């Protein structure tokens, strides 16, 4: 599968996976080694699921969901399959984020602590709610077959922007969570003595920012975009009209950086280019 | 000056200015009403310049610097003028950010407090250093006339990405700073009792996130991009060769979402379209 700068892509992808995986490991080491461990009993052991699940689901899995269309070896897979994987990963991330919220609310109720007073909680709960909304709207508009093409074309730039903005917001929220935990004075020795826990947890924060930086770079390189589907008339022969329209729709929708007028002229261009291979078509974007 | 969705642009621009201005006002009210006020004497009064200068310079002014090319009434101004304004605003932001660092370091030295142990400080100092690096490199590569066009074309996508990433990182850092301040237990009544100061400062955090969201939306809409300069041969007649090359260079550089090959074919396209007005040219992007 031809791709501009394939080696560069692969290097960044492997780095992102490594940094994301390391973030999850660091979070586990943090709660198991520096904190009380894991459990589901209302104590700090239950709270500790909160960082583990948010870093695993809301950062690592959400990050993978964002770049899944960009893996060149999936470009021969149907768009429907890739959309299902994108939606599936985001659903897993949403479920883990919700369990992470339950863990902290139950822990605070058991300890009779007040809830929802911090900026971390305000932004975090809003982010989970908007993430679920994004998931439901995305499912209805892009995965179910009956949304009109024009609606998909209008919503796609908003979907892309909201998704990336929510991903950034989640990273911000986690950095506030780390800060909150380390400043609420529960570490021994104190955070301001450069305690091993403080340095370790700061490093976790840096890893999460680095993971975000890599995902943002990968997802904003135009040359690594999934190529447009072949013209609808090709797909109709092997997938029926619905599948064919699907292909065209997502090609349109995928052009998050084009206005409606440009999309229309682009369809015309694509029709003229009928018969070019994927790589050839990509250069018309 | 014709622009797709001009009213929408104007609405978002006014909202961004309002929210950014409100963020600065909220920060001033915070330090003047809820905290000790402002001064330069090593005490908390000096520390308080830290939030005021970071929100004013590193958020509001940096945000303006990011979108300055998108103001349609500047599209008739020369690219050199706009680049100077962009660089100038970023220089002001950098100077305010550095003074903000001096304020907090001098305050902590006067109080004999340890420095640089928090995630906020690690990321914040790194962000200031990288921001200055971005400014110096941007000045040498895009504003000084002698950088080769090929270098500008290669660096532009990195410059755009780094700039937006740093802007996001600064917002993250400020949210950590708010969290740090409110959790270090200096508020009366306590933060977790939904104190007026807590709610007010959380609201400031939300305003800053909203400002970031508006700037990111405005700067990522392709239809609001500054139109390409007319072909170099036009400019040569009224600006000499150097000015003409300038125009072409920045048109190339401005296509942060195009590969080199696409840029080259694009130049050819533009040459064919010679004579179209700005708006007509834009639709070829």
What are the defining features of this structure?
homodimer, mainly alpha, Four Helix Bundle (Hemerythrin (Met), subunit A), 10 helices, 74% helix, disordered C terminus
Summarize the structure in short.
Two copies of one chain form a homodimer. With 285 residues, chain A is mainly alpha-helical.
Q: What does this entry look like structurally?
A:
Two copies of one chain form a homodimer. The first copy, chain A, folds into two domains: 7-226, Four Helix Bundle (Hemerythrin (Met), subunit A) (Up-down Bundle); 227-285, no CATH class. Chain A is globular and about 60 Å long. In chain A, 40% of the residues are buried. In chain A, 74% of the residues lie in helices and 0% in strands. Chain A has helices at 6-34, 44-47, 49-67, 79-110, 119-143, 149-183, 196-220, 232-254, 260-272, 278-282. Chain A is built from ten helices and no strands. The interface between A and B is large, with 49 and 49 residues.
Oligomeric description of these chains: homodimer
The total strand number of chain A stands at 0
Structural class of chain A comes to mainly alpha
Q: Greatest chain-chain interface?
A: A-B, 49 and 49 residues
Largest sheet of chain A: none
Q: What's the N-to-C terminus distance of chain A?
A: 18 Å
Topology:
The structure is a homodimer.
Chain A: H1 6-34, H2 44-47, H3 49-67, H4 79-110, H5 119-143, H6 149-183, H7 196-220, H8 232-254, H9 260-272, H10 278-282
């Amino acid at each position: 599968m031809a791709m501009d700068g394939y080696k560069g892509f692969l290097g960044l992808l492997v780095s992102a996976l490594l940094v994301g995986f390391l973030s999850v490991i660091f979070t586990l080491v943090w709660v198991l080694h520096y904190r009380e461990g894991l459990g589901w009993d209302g104590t700090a052991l239950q709270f500790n699921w909160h960082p583990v699940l948010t870093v695993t689901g809301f950062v690592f899995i959400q990050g993978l969901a964002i770049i899944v269309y960009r893996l060149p070896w999936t470009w021969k897979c149907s768009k429907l399959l890739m959309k299902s994987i994108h939606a599936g990963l985001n659903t897993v991330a949403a479920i883990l984020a919700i369990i992470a919220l339950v863990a902290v609310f139950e822990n605070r109720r058991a300890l009779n602590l007040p809830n929802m007073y911090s900026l971390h909680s305000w932004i975090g709960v809003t982010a989970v709610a908007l993430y679920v909304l994004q998931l439901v709207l995305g499912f209805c508009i892009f995965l179910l077959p009956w949304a009109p093409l024009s609606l998909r074309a209008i919503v796609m730039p908003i979907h892309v922007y909201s998704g990336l903005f929510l991903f950034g917001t989640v990273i911000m929220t986690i950095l506030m969570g780390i800060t909150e935990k380390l400043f609420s004075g529960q570490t021994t020795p104190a955070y301001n003595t450069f305690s091993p826990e403080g340095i370790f947890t700061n490093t976790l924060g840096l890893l999460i920012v680095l993971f975000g930086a890599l995902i943002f770079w990968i997802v904003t390189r135009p040359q690594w975009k999934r190529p447009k589907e072949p013209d609808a008339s090709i797909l109709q022969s092997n997938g029926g009209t619905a599948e064919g329209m699907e292909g065209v729709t997502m090609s349109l929708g995928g052009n998050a950086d084009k206005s409606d007028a440009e999309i229309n002229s682009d369809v015309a261009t694509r029709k003229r280019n009928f018969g070019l291979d994927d790589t050839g078509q990509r250069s018309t974007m």
